[in-house]
Write a structure and sequence with these properties.
This protein is α+β, with helices and mostly antiparallel strands. The chain has 24 helices and 13 strands. A 7-stranded mixed β-sheet has the order 3-4-5-2-1-8-9. Strands 6-7 form a two-stranded antiparallel sheet. A two-stranded parallel ribbon has the order 10-11. Helix 7 packs parallel to helix 10 and helix 23 crosses helix 24. The longest helix has 18 residues.
Length: about 450
């Protein structure tokens, strides 16, 4: 028996008083059986949605009932600081859009309700208030064995909902489970249905995959079944792109190793996405040099374009897209001890002070994936020390940090316009080269001379 929170027992008493039963179902039960803390509370009942509303309206304290999925028998109930999804026992028929049932029929039978669910591990219920287990399909045994198995015929389950194959591989990554043989074999035949799934739902599953400890578990299953080519063809195309001479692995395995490293270190999501996509441009930029070694000149620029296309297609927020693409575009820096302080300052400006740690994280992931080994303890340390030293010595790293403004330049006779912006940028470059020049007097003097030069270059302007 598992522990049933008192509030759920209280809710069960409300339903029992009306002659109705209620069960805890879905992910909450799965998490409880795995010894994890449930994130969501899904309940199923033989009470109709109208009865559910009435039960909570008369409860003390009252519960707020929101008809979030009333068409499919689901309401959301806000009760004692909990958000609960309560669905009437139901059967389903017809899945024209490959995602939602065309018809929903209510049933008084919990077994029929559980039979429509995706996987056996999600088809276990706990009858409230005591928590007696209802397990018609062997879900508890599959959880103990670490197996993801469809309820009933896998082909039928996947034909009903094209998101289910992606959920299957996502659960494999999240739980470190294996897909049951027939369940795995049914996925390629469901790709046409999966293609109907909205980009937003695919994005949600991708996010859950990269939030897992080892995303490659899912991505390799996606490659095996055709899901990777369907949803991430740019990544699938990296298979077989050899890069011997610099890397131990082909581009796909290298990308997956980098992604696993970033995910395992719990780096921010944009870093994990960047690790996954940072080398996708190598497919189109690969060339063999005179010595027989593959080169990938400027692949980071092409990878940035591909990452922007992929993330845009999956409806990622613009802020996430911009962050990932910036990391991908700038990840190919090569620090040496020969860099002077001006070069370090320019590096900081190019990367952005706020992005430095994320860039270091991406480079660590990239370095790990080159040979499948943890980078040396001093990896990047010389650069990070130099960056820290420069930041402590000079904060003049942007236009807002220099000692003069556009208004100051206008005041000495420089006309507003394009060349004023050019002069300001040149002043910043001057300060990056030599912070000692960041005084009002020095910069106005330099600006005046530059303006004279502009005048000689454009006498009729």
């Amino acid at each position: 028996m598992v522990f049933i929170p008192p509030v759920l027992k209280e809710i069960a008493a409300l339903f029992s008083a009306k002659g109705r039963e209620i069960c805890l179902v879905g992910g909450a039960v799965r998490d409880m059986l795995l010894g994890k803390k449930p994130k969501d509370w899904d309940l199923a009942t033989n009470a109709l949605p109208g009865e559910v509303r009435e039960i909570f309206q008369k409860a003390r304290p009252r519960g707020r009932v929101i008809p979030t999925g009333i068409k499919h028998g689901t309401v959301t109930v806000l009760y004692r600081e909990l958000s609960l999804e309560i669905t009437t026992y139901r059967t389903e028929a017809g899945y024209t859009d490959g995602r939602r049932p065309d018809e929903v029929s209510y049933t008084a039978n919990i077994e029929e309700d559980l039979s429509r669910r995706d996987f056996t591990m999600n088809a276990v219920a706990l009858r409230l208030p005591k928590g007696e287990m209802i397990d018609f399909f062997g879900g508890e045994a599959d959880l103990k064995a670490g197996i993801i198995r469809c309820v009933g015929d896998p082909a039928e389950r996947f034909a009903e909902d094209g998101l289910r194959p992606l959920r299957a591989v996502r659960f494999a990554a999240q739980l470190s489970f294996d897909l049951e043989k027939q369940t795995l074999a049914a996925i390629p035949g469901a790709l046409e249905t999966s293609a109907k799934v909205s980009a937003e739902r695919v994005k949600d599953e991708i996010d859950k995959i990269i939030d897992s400890a080892k995303p490659s578990r899912a991505f390799l299953l996606m490659e095996q079944t055709g899901l990777l080519k369907l949803f991430l063809p740019e990544l699938a195309g990296c298979r077989g792109i050899d890069q011997k001479g610099f890397h131990r692995f082909d581009v796909l395995d290298h990308s997956l190793l980098a992604c696993d490293y970033a995910a395992g270190k719990q780096y921010p999501r944009d870093v994990v996405l960047a690790a996954l996509l940072h080398d996708t441009g190598k497919v189109s930029t690969r060339k063999m040099d005179e010595s027989g070694v593959w080169t990938f000149y400027r692949h980071e620029a092409e990878s940035e374009k591909i990452a922007r296309s992929v993330l845009g297609r999956l409806r990622y927020p613009n802020a996430v897209i911009d962050s990932v693409c910036h990391l991908v575009k700038e990840h190919m820096f090569h620090y040496t001890d020969e860099w002077n302080d001006a070069a370090v300052r320019r590096f900081i400006v190019r990367i952005g002070e706020e992005n430095l740690e994320k860039m270091y994280q991406l480079r660590r992931a990239d370095a790990y994936a080159t040979a499948g080994q943890e980078p040396a303890p001093d990896f990047l340390l010389p650069l990070t020390y130099r960056v820290e030293k420069v930041l402590n010595e000079s904060r003049a790293l942007s236009l807002k940090d220099i000692a003069v403004s556009g208004k100051d330049l206008i005041a000495i006779g420089i006309k507003p316009g394009k060349h004023l912006g050019v002069i300001l940028n040149e002043l910043l470059e001057t300060v990056l080269d030599d912070p000692e020049q960041n005084t009002r007097e020095a910069l106005l003097n330099i600006a005046g001379k530059m303006n004279e030069k502009f005048g000689m270059m454009n006498p009729h302007s």
